[in-house]
Amino acid sequence: MSAIAGVYGVADPGTILDTMIERLKHRGPDDCGTYCCGEAALGHTRLSILDVAGGKQPIFNEDSSACIVFNGKIYNYQKLREQLSNRHRFITNTDTEVILHLFEDVGEECVRHLDGMFSFAIYDDKRGLMLARDPLGIKPLYIAQDGDSLYFASEMKALMDVVPDFDEFPAGHCYITGNGRNKYFSMPKGCSIPMTADEARVGIRNYLEKAVVKRLMSDVPIGVFLSGGLDSSIIAAIAVKHKPGIHTFSVGMEDSEDRKYALMVSDYLGTEHHEKVYTLDDMLNALPDVIYYLESYDAALVRSAVPNYFLAKLASQYVKVVLSGEGADELFSGYHYLKEINRSELNQELLEITEALHNTNLQRCDRMTMAHGIEGRVPFLDVDLLRFSATIPVDLKLGPDDTEKWILREAFKGRLPDEIVYRRKSKFSEGAGSSLALSMVAEMEITDKEFECERELPDGHVLANKEELMYYRIFQQFYPLDSAMSAIGFSRSL
């Protein structure tokens, strides 16, 4: 895990790159590296996960005619390495080098062979620049084009003082000089096939087990974010089978439900559990940092990012990699509002909120973990599991009595305490006990008149409430450009 940045088609690109890399060092506190030639400059800040001693980036091919900077994790890299080893000489044990040699062999089609989360840039003396982002946008990437010049970075803060206009690079796309931007991945359309509950249960268990196991790959300590809700508890239950005594982490205010249920799960599974209690003062003190790293003022997102910030800070004291439960609600119909949607339209709604994850919950998970120099992995968003879940009939997802994530609960009944399997869905900020605390502060600090005067923004967006206005004011201090505003996504009313 790390950050990437670069410049292409710009005179003296090295000076610009230094400015960009400085803004991204929190994502890669272990090392940094750059490469500059006449028309391109690539930079990288590194969080060392694989081949800790030998994986410094940029990484070059055998004759130094091409190099790569990479952010993410490729779970099938060992299999790909075996296939490439008779044609290429490897100098590291990293997944990064595998992508580079794969690109040499098949060009931009390399992205179709990768199983993982990624954003990367490859510069080739003959073919120019290639950029790519993983199918769901788990790893971030932003891009700016100014005539023949191109700039890119893992976070928009790296572009703020470099170019006036930038965009989010779309998930499931790649770019290559001369060919422009191309879409290589499309979300599986919700297309239910005849399936019994038993078949669905077996499929979910098999796909999710494989997804968790591949994400346990690491040369450094690994843990699980454990809220005590269904999703994170399932991840912990699978992980502990393969790594007994794995670290788990939970946070909350003094009256937090999550801490109580997380401890129950930890005791049941035998994990090495850690928790932190935070206060309203802690939240207010952390809020500017949260919004700076999050790069959003969306009220629902900031509200959940605050406990996530404390959670990542706690985990960073013990591990460098964590598994998280993002994506289960989108795949298996976990939000309460989904019960109100006609079942004939539910698959389309699930598709849309899954496609939006890259700038909602996935953005929160990535930015809060990276703010503390740890890597977050999301097993529920494994592409194979995603495709299987799209075939499960919606009547199994909600169940006969409109129980959210009914089939997921049934799949893991008996592997967790019943109190956990049937625990009602609770938003992260609700379970942590902090969902109303910040909104109450906003109500006290912002008058009705101020809100009415300021709620409609110059770009036409209308702020949802005083809480969002409080976050927007902080956001504006860090990100005043119009392009920063347009790069923000907003949560549904969940």
Model description:
- The structure is a single chain.
- This protein is 39% helix and 18% strand.
- It has helices at 13-22, 77-84, 95-106, 197-214, 230-242, 257-269, 280-294, 299-315, 328-332, 343-355, 361-371, 383-389, 394-398, 406-411, 418-421, 428-431, 437-445, 448-454, 466-478, 482-486, and strands spanning 2-8, 31-36, 40-46, 59-60, 66-74, 116-124, 128-133, 142-146, 149-153, 167-168, 173-176, 180-183, 222-225, 247-252, 272-277, 321-323, 375-377.
- Strands 2-3-1-9-8-10 form a 6-stranded antiparallel β-sheet. The protein has a 6-stranded antiparallel β-sheet with strand order 4-5-6-7-11-12, covered by helices on one side.
- It has 2 domains: 2-183, Glutamine Phosphoribosylpyrophosphate, subunit 1, domain 1, CATH 3.60.20.10; 197-486, HUPs (Rossmann fold, 3-Layer(aba) Sandwich), CATH 3.40.50.
- The longest helix is centred in the middle third of the chain and has 18 residues, at 197-214.
- The chain is an alpha+beta fold and 494 residues long.
- The chain has 20 helices and 17 strands.
- Helix 17 (437-445) packs across helix 19.
